[in-house]
Amino acid sequence: MIYVLLFTSVFIGYLLALILKVKEVKTLSIYLAFSGAFLLALTIFELLPEVYKGPTESIGVYIISGILLQIVLEFFSQGAEHGHVHVHEYTNSFPWLLFISLSIHALLEGVPITENNNLLIGIMVHKIPIALILSVFFIKANYKKTTILLFLFLFGLMTPLGNWLSNNFEITQNYHREITAVAIGVFFHVSTTILFESSKNHQFNVSKMSAVILAIIIAYFL
């Protein structure tokens, strides 16, 4: 069921792009702010205590490594993980650099998901608007429908694959805490970037602030 939900969340985003016909991605900024705050809160409330249960000397290094890894990935993805896609960077051929960078990000997302935490909900809340934004930009860039669907299909497989790898290989189980710490760094970078970018020109926005507070409250009581 976890794998199905993770996979279908990507196509929910695609279907919403077709149904809503969003012309300006910035109209999603409130929902992006909610998703960023929700993911950040779940990371702090659930994942951080988990990785600090054992020896903590090197955990900070892994978290910082995750932040640095995400910075490198965004050099190739142009920030698609938090709602930025620059269509002019790609031709109508399959966007391999974007796919590879997003796939590494998505694989790491799957590792910390367990039945003992609520990260599955956080990842779904994060994935739906990102898939929606990717779909909107690809449609506006006149990508072939087959290319869009192939991209989303393969991208949708990555997070379930990451979770499956973490549960079925001895090496990923032995280093689960360290890999989770790297994922925490990735989540920190992506979620805080979403929150910073949601405040245009650093102006206070009541709607976005309300969405952020609501996301944190929901994450706390899950």
Q: Helical content, roughly?
A: over 70%
Biggest sheet character: none
**N-to-C terminal Cα separation, in Å?**
19 Å
- Please, how many helices? 9
Give the amount of beta strand, in percent.
Answer: under 5%
Overview of the structural elements:
By secondary structure, the chain is mainly alpha-helical. The chain has one domain (2-20, 31-221). Helices cover 75% and strands 0% of the residues. The protein has helices at 2-20, 29-51, 59-77, 96-110, 119-140, 145-168, 170-174, 176-198, 206-221. This is ZIP Zinc transporter family protein. It is a multi-pass membrane protein.
Q: Features of this protein?
A:
transmembrane; ZIP Zinc transporter family protein; membrane; transmembrane helix; mainly alpha; 0% strand; 9 helices
Question: Any chance you could write out the topology, listing elements then pairs?
Answer:
Elements (H helix, E strand, L loop, with lengths): L1 H19 L8 H23 L7 H19 L18 H15 L8 H22 L4 H24 L1 H5 L1 H23 L7 H16 L1
Helix pairs in contact: 1-5, 1-6, 2-5, 2-8, 2-9, 3-4, 3-8, 4-6
Summarize the structure.
With 222 residues, the protein is an all-alpha fold.
